[in-house]
Design a protein that fits this description.
about 40% helix; about 15% strand; single chain; alpha/beta; binds 3-hydroxy-3-methylglutaryl-coenzyme A; 12 helices; about 300 residues; TIM Barrel; binds magnesium ion; globular
Length: about 300
């Protein structure tokens, strides 16, 4: 096994990627209480919501109220998704630390997700990134469908690289590579990162896995061997993408923390507090959360 990093940064995306795909409506005050719990777990980063069109993602229509209501922990970076100028204006009003722009490596998913071609999206995002940076925010970029598209199937690595490089040219600080529909396998992650590392520094990359087919932790291990030290995850494995059928279940933060700590890799996260936060949001949804850690907890409680 290659040398592994000693510390990993986990970016909690549950309140955004987790809730955006949930049928059950979570009350704004419950979202706030959940994020406040997550803020006390030692997680350094929480994506709290998304300033997209409320008609497209009604689950996150209360982004402003959530941003206003949470108790901000000075050790936590609070972030949200921003698709365009209108989203930027709303997000700046909410005064978050970091804003995330997003697009896909495949044309069809980009169109379904944000109603623009890839080429048109650069024109939309250019002023958004510039103005966000002028306002003192850091900007994260997401590329979706890196390992496969629900509409186009295989996505050539050169398309991923093209979109990634253009996002860095726009001025993003970090790029998150998304396995939107959870199809990535460890060999593919190895091959993709080998290619990407020829052009981009691992220090600027994060991996965003979905566990739809149970391969997320294996993909994390391969990424760790490539020197990746930032991973997106969602407590309990909540999550998905409404414009990618079958994209259920983000990599679970609690399973990730369990594996990393067992391998003596620090995260700064307190597992008991993370479990409490998972149990809290589970109690607000009409279902058990899919992570292994939550299943163990649920079995112990019945
Ligand atoms: P559009 O309909 O093309 O927007 O939607 P438009 O620019 O034509 O404007 C139409 C109307 O919407 C206008 O109002 C705008 O003001 C309004 P009107 O003049 O008709 O009254 N509008 C907005 N209102 C509020 N907030 C806004 C906003 N923008 C326009 N931000 C748009 C384009 C991008 C807005 C829409 O397609 C959208 O909201 N898409 C969201 C899709 C989404 O959230 N997908 C999930 C997140 S991505 C993901 O999950 C992947 C990720 O996890 C990584 C991975 O797993 O791969 C990140
Ligand atoms: Mg996602």
């Amino acid at each position: 096994m290659q040398a592994l990093p000693k510390h990993v940064t986990i970016k909690e995306v549950g309140p955004r990627d987790g809730l955006q795909n949930e049928a059950a409506e979570v009350a704004t005050h419950d979202k706030i209480a959940w994020i406040d719990r997550l803020s006390e777990t030692g997680l350094p980063y929480i994506e709290i919501s998304s300033f997209v069109h409320p008609k497209w993602i009604p689950q996150l229509k209360d982004a402003q109220q959530v941003a206003d209501g949470i108790d901000r922990n000075k050790d936590v970076t609070y972030a949200a998704l921003v698709p365009n100028q209108k989203g930027l204006e709303r997000a700046l009003e909410a005064d978050l630390d970091e804003l995330s722009v997003f697009m896909s490596a495949s044309e069809a998913h980009n169109k379904k997700n944000i109603n623009k071609s890839i080429e048109e999206t650069y024109d939309v995002l250019q002023p958004v990134v510039r103005e966000a940076k002028n306002a003192g925010k850091t900007v994260r970029g997401y590329v979706s469908t890196v390992f496969g598209c629900p509409y186009e199937g295989d996505v050539p690595i050169k398309q991923v690289l093209e979109v990634s490089k253009r996002l860095f040219d726009l001025g993003i600080d970090e790029l998150s590579l998304g396995d939107t529909i959870g199809v990535a396998n460890p060999l593919q992650v190895d091959q993709t990162l080998t290619e990407i590392k020829k052009h981009l520094s691992v220090d600027q990359l994060a991996m965003h896995f979905h566990n739809t087919r149970g391969m997320a932790l294996s993909n994390v291990l391969v990424s760790l061997e490539h020197g990746i030290t930032t991973f997106d995850a969602s407590v309990g494995g909540l999550g998905g993408c409404p414009y990618a059928k079958g994209a259920s279940g983000n990599l679970a933060t609690d399973d990730l923390v369990h594996m990393l700590h067992a391998m003596h890799i620090e995260t700064g996260v307190q597992r008991d507090r993370l479990t409490d936060a998972g149990l809290f949001i589970q109690s607000k949804l009409d279902k058990w959360l899919p992570s292994h850690q939550m299943q163990i907890c649920n079995k112990e409680r019945v």
